[in-house]
Design a protein that fits this description.
By secondary structure, the chain is of the alpha/beta class. The protein contains six helices and six strands. β1, α1 (13-24) and β2 (30-35) form a beta-alpha-beta unit. α1 (13-24) packs across α6. The structure holds flavin mononucleotide.
Length: 158
């Protein structure tokens, strides 16, 4: 099985979870990674607020060129932080580019505490199909441990 994981991570939370998920897949599974890179600077508190506004407006943002085609893979895993109860704008820009090239897909969503369901609904409606499964990780999960959640997520996909 061939899996593509495409993710955006502003402060490395989603990236860290994804590294742990990759380690959990068995050796027979090929996993490639596409890091979604925003051209806009999102660092610092002013850019945080501007990003909230961008997210509420579902504003498109320019991202670096996409290198891998999801249609070459059996499964696409989309990783995103929640921004104002939806996906991060760079992930929105990514999905708008590749939405017609997706076979099956799953999601990895991280958030402080809320917005998982709305984020997943928004992703499903852009791609136009239902997710196989999702791994939702909140700050509380990160404090209390989430290795079981990761193992269950990977088991559903293998
Ligand atoms: C612009 C912005 C909006 C956010 N909105 C929410 C939100 O609506 N609900 C929530 O629980 N967390 C929210 N967060 C927190 C992030 O979802 C959370 O910290 C996430 O795990 C960060 O992942 P990252 O480090 O991969 O970017 C927001 C963060 C940012 C930067």
């Amino acid at each position: 099985m061939n899996i593509l994981i495409a993710y955006y991570s502003r402060t490395n939370v989603t990236a860290t979870i994804i590294n742990e998920v990759v380690k959990e897949f068995s050796d027979e599974i090929n996993v490639d990674i596409e890091v979604i890179k925003d051209k806009k600077n999102r660092n610092g508190s002013i850019n945080y607020l501007l990003s909230v506004i961008d997210a509420v407006r579902r504003k498109n943002t320019e991202i670096e060129n996409i290198e891998k085609n999801p249609s070459d893979y059996d499964l696409l895993i989309i990783g995103t932080p929640v921004w104002a109860a939806t996906m991060a704008n760079p992930v929105l820009a990514y999905l708008n580019q590749i939405k017609d090239n997706v076979n099956d897909f799953a999601t990895i969503i991280t958030a402080g505490s809320s917005g998982f369901e709305q984020t997943l609904n928004d992703i499903e409606s852009i791609i136009g199909q239902k997710v196989i499964t999702t791994l939702n990780i909140s700050t509380k999960d990160r404090q209390s441990g989430y290795s079981e959640k990761i193992a269950n997520f990977v088991k559903k996909l293998e």
